[in-house]
Design a protein that fits this description.
The chain is an alpha+beta fold. It is 24% helix and 32% strand. It is built from 9 helices and 20 strands. It has helices spanning 58-66, 108-118, 123-136, 152-164, 182-199, 210-216, 234-239, 244-249, 342-348; strands at 20-29, 32-42, 47-51, 73-78, 81-82, 93-96, 170-174, 202-207, 219-224, 227-232, 254-262, 265-268, 271-274, 285-290, 296-298, 307-317, 321-328, 336-341, 355-359, 366-369. The strands form 4 sheets. The chain has a 6-stranded mixed β-sheet, sandwiched between helices. A 5-stranded antiparallel β-sheet has the order 13-12-11-14-20, with no helix packed on it. Strands 15-19-16-17-18 form a 5-stranded antiparallel β-sheet. The protein starts with 19 loop residues before the first strand and ends in a 6-residue tail after the last strand.
């Protein structure tokens, strides 16, 4: 059974010192508690995504790090320096907002140079840095244009170059791709990740888009109702969700009501499955979770464990695969779905109404305390 993952216990980080340390951080807006006792460590050069639904606290946490909304209690350290009470101007970060917030009356070149000129950087150094960054983000020919003359994707690149111009130790991205169309988002997320790797700048991005988080981040911080549900690599978050909320929020998941009937056994309806139920008391009600792509559909049982005779109730074509609703003993309508590859459907000539055997691999079953799937 999965347990909640601590925000700072990633063993792969070893004994490395954290670049950004957040301890016992809470933020209230009147009677509303937006963040509650958040603890997190971010390591130098990491790309970390804050992921969660609207209202989960991810943007509030980012704004606390930036000093735009000072926390009610708790501390923030950056590179060993306590920045908890410092104003944004005294913190070492660059930020890109969802709206880009470019100056409409300034050229691309002037937008990128703005922060450097405010810091009284010598003119020659400003020009060199601006040329370097515009070349890095692929906009050297656009330097004399104004923001209104650029596409959304180009404006995003300008905003990114402006944030990076002062060479900040920390780059903060507040849903920077959400205003763009799907194809541009896909292209830019690869460009941003490539740029982050090249520069090695520690980066935190807020997003509600799980695909962005899975493809761009080194680690994901999943948030819900002002607390951190789980911290881990994209693969860890997807394959071993610590809570039912994470399991439901990331990807697609089947949830079945069950009862533990032994140390290695769980039952839903009249069906019993072998699984790892260690640490869960016999007779305890649980939610059984298994991803649709982990269910193996075949024509015979082939002597395997956890074989469930079923009928294909319906099949939905989703381009690269079919999603099939399986109906069988102990299963209600639309309760168990399996993702079937195009080749499997062709090879077994699968179709609606066919009887099949569904194998639920023991190692892919997760158990959670009984409660709503999102809870």
């Amino acid at each position: 059974m999965s347990g909640r993952t601590s925000a700072g216990d990633d063993g792969r980080q070893g004994a490395r010192d954290a670049y950004l340390s957040i301890r016992d951080l809470s933020k209230s807006f009147g009677d509303f508690l937006a963040l509650q006792d958040v603890a997190l460590e971010v390591f130098e050069g990491e790309f970390v995504c804050f992921l969660g639904p609207s209202g989960c606290g991810k943007t509030t946490l980012l704004r606390a790090i930036a000093g735009l909304d000072i926390q009610t209690r708790g501390s923030i350290e950056q590179a060993g320096r306590d920045i908890s009470a410092l104003p944004p101007s005294e913190r070492d970060f660059g930020i890109v907002f969802q709206s880009y917030a470019l100056f409409p009356n300034l050229s691309v070149r002037k937008n990128v140079a703005y922060g450097l000129e405010n810091r009284k950087v010598p003119r020659a150094e400003v020009e060199r840095r601006v040329e370097e960054l515009l070349a890095t983000v692929g906009l050297p020919e656009q330097s004399d244009k104004f923001p209104a003359q650029l596409s959304g994707g180009q404006q995003q690149r300008v905003a990114l170059a402006r944030a990076l111009a002062p060479s900040p130790g920390l780059l903060l991205l507040d849903e920077p791709l959400s205003a763009l169309d799907a194809k541009v988002r896909v292209r830019l997320r690869h460009e941003i990740k490539s740029l982050q790797r090249t520069l090695g700048v520690t980066t935190i991005m807020v997003t509600h888009d799980q695909e962005e988080a899975l493809t761009m981040s080194d680690r994901i911080v999943v948030m819900n109702h002002g607390v951190i549900e789980q911290v881990g690599t994209p693969l860890e978050i997807y394959r071993d969700p610590a809570t039912a909320f994470v399991a439901d929020f990331i990807g697609t998941m089947n949830f079945l009501p069950g009862v533990v009937v032994g140390p290695q056994r769980v039952r839903f309806g009249s069906v019993e499955l072998d699984c790892d139920a260690d640490g869960v008391a016999e007779g305890k009600s649980v939610t059984i979770a298994v991803r649709p792509e982990d269910i193996v559909v075949q024509s015979g049982d082939e002597g395997q464990e956890n074989v469930l005779p079923a009928r294909i109730g319906s099949m939905e074509f989703l381009g690269s695969f079919y999603r099939a609703d399986l109906v069988g003993e102990g299963l209600e309508a639309d309760q168990l779905r399996a993702d079937l590859s195009i080749n499997l459907v062709r090879r077994l000539q699968l179709d609606e109404g066919m009887n099949v055997n569904a194998v639920i691999p023991r190692g892919r079953i997760r158990l959670y305390p009984t409660g709503p799937a999102g809870g």
